[in-house]
Amino acid sequence: MTGPTDAPDAAAPRPERTGATARVVFQPSGRRGEFPVGTPLLDAARSLGVYVESVCGGRGICGRCQVSVSEGRFAKEKLTSAAENLGEVTRAEARYAELRNLPADRRLSCQATIEGDLVIDVPVDAQTNRQLVRKRAEMVNIAPDSAIRLVTVQVSEPDMDQPLGDGDRLLATLAAETGLEGLTLAPVLLPRVQQVLRKGQWQVSAAIWQDGPHAAEVVALWPGVKETVYGLAVDIGSTTIAAHLSDLVTGRTVTSAGTSNPQIRFGEDLMSRVSYVQMNPERLPDLVSTVRAAVDALVAKLVADVGATRADVLDAVIVGNPIMHHLFLGIDPSELGGAPFALAVSGAVHQHADSVGLELNPGARVYLLPCIAGHVGADAAAATLATRPFEADPLTLLVDIGTNAEIVLGNRERLLAASSPTGPAFEGAEISCGQRAAPGAIERIRIDPVTLEPRFKVIGLEEWSDDPEFAEKKDQVGVTGICGSGIIEAVAELFLAGVITEDGLIDGRLAAKSPRVVQRGRTHAYVVAQDGIEIAIGQRDIRSIQLAKAALYAGVKLLLDKLGNPELGRIRLAGAFGSYIDTKYAMILGLIPDCDLAEVSSVGNAAGTGARMALISRAERRVIERVVREIEKIETALEPRFQEHFVNAMALPNKVDRFPKLSSVVTLPLPAPETPDDEQSEDAGNRRRRRRRG
Q1: Sign of the C-alpha dihedral, residues 601, 602, 607, 612?
Q2: pTM of the model as a whole
Q3: Nearest-5° Cα angle at 484, 479 to 489
């Protein structure tokens, strides 16, 4: 931090440059806005519904409003963020730093003013509406056969007539007990083996690691009897990280925890992070250390939950999309930023835990599942392992919907995989009132087709907005924005209510019918709520959702084309987002193809489930390694029909594909007749003319 100015205790803005504004993006919420230079950062956050805790009234005393600046060139945001773009340190801020030891990379948002473009990271400890990590541990019912085998033996004491070393006698005893040949002792144990044997009075428990073609090795020792050791399964998503701790003896998952992926400060979606590395190559170690530190922090929480220690964790399985996979391994993901989307490594990876920054038992190992293709990663492989379409007769579509949708389609006869760049719209980003899933976010919405009045439900409250108790309780969490599941339902409900047309255009004529439809420049918006913060869905928001859903649907259609366009038997939606969207609304939107709604379901955090299966069973590792080798990879960017499918999928639910099974349970609006003289056509004409001029 620079030295304090002569500003008073409360932040005083610099002399304002007339008309000057700056863009600010707050992470991890993804909320953004443009503000006059000199605006206090805390005021900007609050105006966007980004709640940063502050209990001292902005006097720089409590220190609860700490934030940090993510520096570098952010191509997606078209801005360069730098710490110098915050105003100088005030006396109050300097005094707090002196008395409370404010970290060098932190500022007090009540004191700091906006002087230029910024990407602001709100630390977890300063968030009052933290994002929810909705990745619970699903039931896994397979026989435990992990890469770690726990064996207790009695070793013979040293004998003058048989001068074998203590370690050699230990290995001989273990080999006789287990039948393992070529057993070795991990080098990390050599300085300790004699001490452990004597402390246990020659009875010791050994953890033996053996996986696939790798030779068996003793990786940990304890004096006496050791009954339990643990393994770690981690799903590293671009937005959230979920970790599970399993008992490797029983195979039971004993505790789980999750957190936001702190890499989000470097870019909301995957390609933004690749661009960030390409434009700021010196910051690659920051992205690597950030995600590793987040996983390591989860380890501390997990072992504390069960009264264990880090030394009790002997094995770990990590899954993630290719970019997260590479960054966790310390690999520059730049090659994944363009064709041919080359992976540095696609097969399964074995590492020592300390080589990837995890503080576990010194002998602990890490296994990363294989990646399927350049943008279909180890997480998709894990989800495939969990859902097992390769063992099924019905044609199954498995979709993990995130900033990059990973798609697997097939059955026991044939399996194909692809990815589609959906972007972060489904997670609330790129939506004017969007935010990630956190208390206060609208997650459910219904719109009366007659009055066009909405009712909604926010995360953190059980009551809907039309419930009398909602008004009494809403101040507990606020109504701060709309998250991914909410925006899906909102656009679908607007379509069903006739507010938006098949082409996604808001019908401005309805402004005469309802005050909810308001004009915004040359287009219109639908106002969901207006209580402190206006939450409105505008034309650009709808277009963002259309673009995202069209990309996903086009990817699915390409895979169906390869199979001759057969009828889908089942659809399985994976991931945190897939777990919380209403499958009916996903189909109304045209996010997924027509299918019997009874056969469309969520499979929860299938990637995390698959990771836990690979953690507790070596056989499952061999299964997915074989399946990944057999999957046919389709690169959507190289397929000539992708654009055709994409254009058709922009319509709601689709321009050419019919949805007879959906229509049997939902009355879909008829396509609107062409009326060139109405306001809708005028708006559409304006859009076409603007495109021609552009």
Answers
A1: negative
A2: 0.81
A3: 85
